[in-house]
Amino acid sequence: MSVKARQSTPGFFSVPQQRRFRKNILAWYDRHARDLPWRASHDPYRVWLSEIMLQQTRVAAVIEHYHEFLRRFPTVEKLAAAREASVLAVWSGLGYYRRARMLHAAAKAIVRVHRGKFPASEEGLRALPGIGRYTAAAIASIAFGEPAAVVDGNVERVLQRVSGDRLAGEELWIAAGNLLDAKRPGDFNQAMMELGAVVCTPRAPSCLTCPVVELCATRGELAPKEKATPQKKREIHYALNLRKEDRPNQEVFLVQRPGDASLMPGMWELPELAGLNGTGTPSFTLRHSITVTDFTVRVWQNVTAVGVGGKWIAQARLRQIALTGLARKILRKAKLL
Ligand code: SF4
Fold first, then answer.
1. Cα(132)–Cα(145) distance, rounded to whole angstroms?
2. Residue located nearest, by CA, to atom 8 of ligand 1
3. pTM higher than 0.85, yes or no?
4. Residue 158: CB within 6 Å of ligand 1?
5. Residue 227 lies in a domain
6. How many domains does the chain have?
7. SS3 of residue 256 by DSSP
């Protein structure tokens, strides 16, 4: 879906604030944009090449390879006509060779299907191999002036900080589309990415020099998500007593929770062994988590639980009575269920 449509949500800025944001960031970009070789041209071949090279690669490494690539393959026709081995050789050092293969495949498609002319729309570009939503919007806006917003890691961080909200997924694309300057979409997109790369950095953003500081909700790093409550750890012990073990219908000793218990009233479980001093070896151990507690459950066989009223239940009946989740787990492990 294109983000050209101005949608109303998520709308963290009023219309005058949006205007101010665009004006400030574009004025800053005009004065401070880094002088990068691909910014000298709006030629779609060069824009495309730089966008693909910049994926997962540092700007400095891309600069080194960008010139050499253009020297060897100055046009999309030359790239399409090249052998794959030659393309990969020039790509060497940039890594992620799939990008180079896709670039080569897309060049062939542009020559074969589009007679050497790049599709001039975000939609048309997306139909080419290796061109996803971000790259299509970047080429369409920078090379063809189409008002298509981009979202990459830098834009995501800027949007989250200026809005003070952990926008995610589609919300980010909508927010970027809302802010986009329709008259200078390519410069606006580059300004957003540049701001994220050099001012609104992941750690210690330079808010004092930020052109949109007066509009920013966070003015610093977004507070980390609240950590989940740490799991408490507890050890509990249960007695697993069996009788008539050698007969087909052996029985297991269970107790029933009081009918007025706040948790699992009336349900059946194994008798808990309180105050066990931990000597000896349990028959088996298992883990059980309930909300914020992580239990280590030790099960002891043929240990008498003191002062517990309970009942011998035939194994065949275990499926018919209401067992607690943990009792079920223990009985399964003991192969009684
Ligand atoms: S004020 Fe700081 S946190 Fe906000 S956008 Fe600018 S650099 Fe990022």
1. 18
2. 200
3. no
4. yes
5. no
6. 2
7. strand
